[in-house]
Write a sequence for this structure.
């Protein structure tokens, strides 16, 4: 039979091997999740370029504070609603009138929604129904993709200028920790300083531009 010491040694080896296996498994799962996020970001980015080629600009969606969960979800919902045709470039809703006196009617969808994950099943009855405010694209960790571009309350159709000075939009996943810091980021202008990527909360972020 085995002595107590031998049994303890066997148990210790089993625990070590289990820990190694668990660590490898988590690493593989995280790598797969990051790969999926990059693929989904590419789908959204392609839809944004298609939208711009049709309407002349990217969707104006104000995400005023990326550290605030409600702001992130609101921005993500606005992005989704615009890309599927229920919201105009400047945020005008279907059936509404923009600042130029033009009435906006539902447009065509810029992407295949089935290629992305949603926070809620949308909609239960028909894909042609307007998505609820709690519906948005989510990353593999269940968090909304963060989209930042011109705030519709700070820009006007047909009028040049406004605070946004960045060429293009900002789009990223917050990664496995589900957190983001605004240090080094100006949501109004789109300016990103090197300090933004160096923040602990942002190290695992996955940008659409990567």
């Amino acid at each position: 039979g085995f002595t107590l010491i031998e049994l303890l040694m066997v148990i210790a080896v089993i625990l070590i091997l289990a820990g190694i296996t668990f660590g490898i498994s988590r690493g593989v799962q995280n790598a797969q999740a990051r790969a999926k996020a990059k693929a989904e970001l590419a789908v959204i980015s392609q839809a944004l370029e298609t939208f711009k080629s049709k309407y002349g600009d990217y969707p104006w969606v104000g995400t005023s504070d990326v550290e605030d969960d409600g702001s992130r979800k609101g921005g993500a919902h606005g992005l989704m609603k615009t890309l599927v045709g229920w919201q105009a470039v400047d945020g005008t809703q279907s059936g509404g009138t923009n600042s130029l006196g033009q009435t906006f009617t539902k447009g065509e969808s810029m992407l295949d929604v089935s290629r992305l994950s949603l926070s809620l099943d949308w909609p239960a009855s028909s894909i042609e129904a307007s998505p609820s405010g709690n519906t948005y694209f989510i990353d593999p960790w269940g968090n909304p993709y963060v989209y930042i571009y011109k705030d519709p309350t700070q820009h006007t159709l047909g009028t040049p200028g406004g605070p946004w000075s960045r060429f293009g939009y900002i789009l990223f996943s917050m990664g496995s920790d589900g957190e983001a810091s605004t240090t080094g980021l100006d949501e109004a202008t789109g300016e990103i300083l090197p300090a933004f990527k160096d923040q602990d909360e942002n190290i695992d972020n996955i940008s659409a531009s990567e």
Remarks:
- The first strand starts at residue 117 and ends at 118.
- The chain has one domain: 39-207.
